[in-house]
Automatic annotation (TrEMBL):
SMART domains per record: Gln-synt_C (SM01230)
InterPro entries xrefs: Gln_synt_N_sf (IPR036651), Gln_synth/guanido_kin_cat_dom (IPR014746), Gln_synth_cat_dom (IPR008146)
Family named by the database record: Belongs to the glutamine synthetase family.
Residues annotated as domain GS catalytic: 140-481
Enzyme class: ligase
Name the record gives this protein: Glutamine synthetase family protein
The keyword Signal is annotated on this UniProt entry: no
Organism the protein comes from: Actinomadura monticuli
GO MF annotations, alphabetized: ligase activity
Pfam families listed in its UniProt record: Gln-synt_C (PF00120)
EC number: 6.3.1.-
Amino acid sequence: MEQTPETAAGGTGLEAYALGGRERTRLGGRAAEAARRLAGEGVVAVALTWVDVSGITRAKTVPVERLELAAAWGVGMSPVFDVFLLDDSIVSGRYIGGPAGDLRLHPVLERLVPMAALPGWAHAPALRYAQDGTPHPLDARAVLRRETDRLAAGGWSVKAAFEVEWAVSRGGGDDFAPACKGPAYGMTRVTELAGYLRDVLGALQRTGVTVVQLHPEYAAGQYEVSVAAEAPLGAADTTVLVRETIRAVSIEHGLAASFSPKVEAGSVGNGGHVHLSLWREDTGDGPANAMAGGSGPCGMTAAGEAFAAGILRRLPALLAVGAPAVASYLRLVPSHWASAFACWGLENREAALRFVTGAEGERATAANLEVKCLDAAANPYLLLAALLAAGRDGLGAGLRLPEPVDADPADLPEEERSARGIVPLPASLDEAVAAFEADGVLRDALGEAVADTVATVRRGEIALFDGATPEHIAAVTRWRH
């Protein structure tokens, strides 16, 4: 449903986004036009995707000629998917669980695109509604929309982008066999898989994704793609589309792509860093980046500093959403560029918050905050909603940042870290969940149903891997996200 002025002004609950009869008619008409266009381009089916609490992208598909009906009345699905664990076993929470009930998936038509990597297919993220047209309280996209509306009510917006890291394996087995042998960041890795990388870039371009850069990464067979920043809802939609495009191109080349936070127990894992910039909307000269042009640390305005400080304050609790797998904590260790300490620094890649100014001359548009302690096991919609809520709380409280850290925090004497308030982030998912459950700001922002379900799923996966070796955890997680 498109936002109305009333929902933008309110933003107090998901009820503001309910579907009514006229809206269903309008959506059906738009979908009918889109279906005719897609059919003319050879598209025969549309994948409707949502991301569950365990971070896995799930899907239902409809023939293109059924798109009009799906847009107006939805596609049936069980709410139990919200309590699936990463191995597809099922737990039950206070709000979700069991076989009873029905939800309706509705495609987001503004994000409906043919998938260049899957000829004959189109993709649309889905919103989930109850049968009466009210949004499902676990619909992560609606939760993120609510949070962007809350910021907008104060005159603020955010631009966001996810970095996507993945490791490429040869063969169809469960083991990982690096698809290239070149050195970390080496041109050799580009040369070895030049055709594959060309096809990844081409498919993303033809799907409408603006790629900023692609490069080989540190771990064996590992690459990273960065995309242009956009509004939070679009950024989350885009990262799902990017990953599914990479997955499809990999399969076409006889390869397999892993986005897991820990592909192999003895190697560095895949991060899922998030870039954020806060913008003031009600200035006379157009939107202004609060992360630049101010008198605060590294040129931040007071609002930009407060937004960053709000995120820094809540990092331990945020990890239950942003580093949500047991395998995440095999990756999140000191001195591995995984950013295992709660601190910030200017261009410090070992700080959990890396402040990026951009080059001289572009800082008014480029300055942003990179949250580095996160990975791709996260549901991107819930993660952005939680990050925005933490930043919004910082804005409301006028928080200030501590002094920046310009070294690897692990190399600082423990006494100095203690004196400067540089604390280790949770070393296990259990610690992160405990911090999350104790955090009233995040629970209030996400809603009690989301908060309870997040904690329930996390504890289910903790029990799933109780006593498991790092090798077993990595093996089970490797191909799931």
